[in-house]
Amino acid sequence: MIETELVVTTTPEVDQGDHERFTHIVLEGYTPKKGDFVPLGNSVVEGMINATPVKALCGKIWVPGRDPKKYPICPTCKEVAGGMGWNLPEG
After folding, report:
1. pLDDT of the chain, 91 residues: tens digit per residue
2. What pLDDT does residue 21 have?
3. Mind giving me the DSSP string for 13-49?
4. Which residue, 20, 23, 28, 60, is CA-closest to 45?
5. CA gap 56, 77 in Å, rounded
6. What is the Cα–Cα distance from 38 to 24, expressed in whole angstroms?
7. How many other CB atoms are there within 10 angstroms of residue 62's CB atom?
8. Whole-angstrom distance, CA of residue 91 vs CA of residue 83
9. Element housing 54 (H / E)
């Protein structure tokens, strides 16, 4: 009797991790009916230039650095923004 051993090898798929990337919505501040703009934290532009973190409506905190046009809008951010009555672009 001859014994054989079956060896299965798999090659893991390598990707850039973009399947979990979303475009997040950041509330940078607001303007009251009578008054000037009130900032609430770091702006996205400031975050990109100074490598400082920003906070999205969904709660994610990250340092922005990628082109947001390449990714779909975060479903949670979209839901929160829609609940506030904001009009959002499709995507």
Report:
1. 666 666 555 554 444 445 578 999 998 888 888 888 887 887 888 889 999 999 999 999 999 988 888 899 999 999 999 998 888 776 5
2. 86
3. ----SGGG--BPP---EE--SSS--EE-S--HHHHHH
4. 28
5. 7
6. 21
7. 13
8. 17
9. strand 54-55
Residue 56 burial (10 A CB sphere; 0-12, 13-18, 19+): buried
Domain boundaries, the chain: 20-83
Q: Residue 26 is encoded by which pair of tokens? A: 């950041």
Measured CA distances, 38 to 4, 30, 43, 88 (Å): 73, 5, 12, 22
The pTM is what? 0.68
